[in-house]
Write the structure tokens for this entry.
Amino acid sequence: MLSIIKKSGYLCKKFHDMLEKIQALLAEIDTLEAHSAEDIEALRIKYLSKKGSIPALMADFRNVPAEQKKEVGIKINELKTKAFDKINSLKAAFDSTDTDADDIDITRTAYPIELGTRHPLTIVRNEIVDIFSRLGFSLAEGPEVEDDWHVFGAMNFADDHPARDMQDTFFIEAKPDVILRTHTSSVQSRVMEHTQPPIRIICPGRVYRNEAISARAHCFFHQVEGLYVDEDVSFTDLKQVLLLFAREMFGEGTQIRLRPSYFPFTEPSAEMDISCNICGGEGCSFCKYTGWVEILGCGMVDPAVLELNGIDSKKYKGYAFGMGVERITNLKYQVKDLRMFSENDTRFLKEFEAAN
Ligand code: DAH
């Protein structure tokens, strides 16, 4: 009997000691503070690690008499949760203070933003458009995905003209004819079909032809089309405008010459050469030692084209011209390989920084 009393007395004491300890720890945890990651880790070790005070209490838990186990168990769990939460909240607070304030230097200059450069074709296209804008031409654009009518029909191509051949044209759908435009002359038709003269437009854009890609040919390239339709337009006007353009683009000393040619949409037609601006007309490999390089096609708008597009050919006349932007860029910057234009190699593009 005595031993039982002794034992229960001992157990009773144990129970009170434990409750006191738990109570003390609960209060202590409320007051915990940390100033570094190390502080937090030390607290974790002190309270929660295997040898920490809370697991030690839990080990002691088995000595608590059965009647009190429930009460003590609830308290220990409360303590454990509180310690976990406290340490986690210290961690969270420390993490968020860790990065700002101390680490951010608001006086430091911003990282420089790397600026890109304009693509050489864009530079040259803008320059061409700019020159013609100053001569009173306004900008017009049309779709790259076109129909047979605007690319060929309205431009007076005969039904069996070889340019309609599958060899040259990319077809999106065979019927109805949806194609990628092979030249910007289609924009002439797009504008004439809803505008009456005077029309004075400059039309830059991308065109597509089914060609094998090489240094000298590509399946897409860029053109600029010009069209002027009015009551009194002559071949002399055309020649004068083109001479002005050539001199603005390639320099005052530039000479031009016109050679007779053929296009379905102009009559008469010509191709225009400029004195080679690489060798100054002396003869070099670029101009094949002739001193001249071809830069565009031109002519008086065929009356049939005016009629096909709803313009009275008895009242109005016009001239038109079309040039390749890649060709003009090659002449200005001597880019030997056409593929460079579409490879997006920044080392190549950076070479045109000064021209931007
Ligand atoms: N469309 C022609 C081509 O792609 C270029 C051209 C030649 C356009 C003569 C014209 C022109 O407006 O009159 O080769």
Observations:
- The pocket of 3,4-dihydroxyphenylalanine is lined by residues 183, 185, 225, 263, 266, 297-299, 320-322 (CB under 6 Å).
- Residues 1-7 have pLDDT under 50 and may be disordered.
- The chain has two domains: 2-102, 120-355.
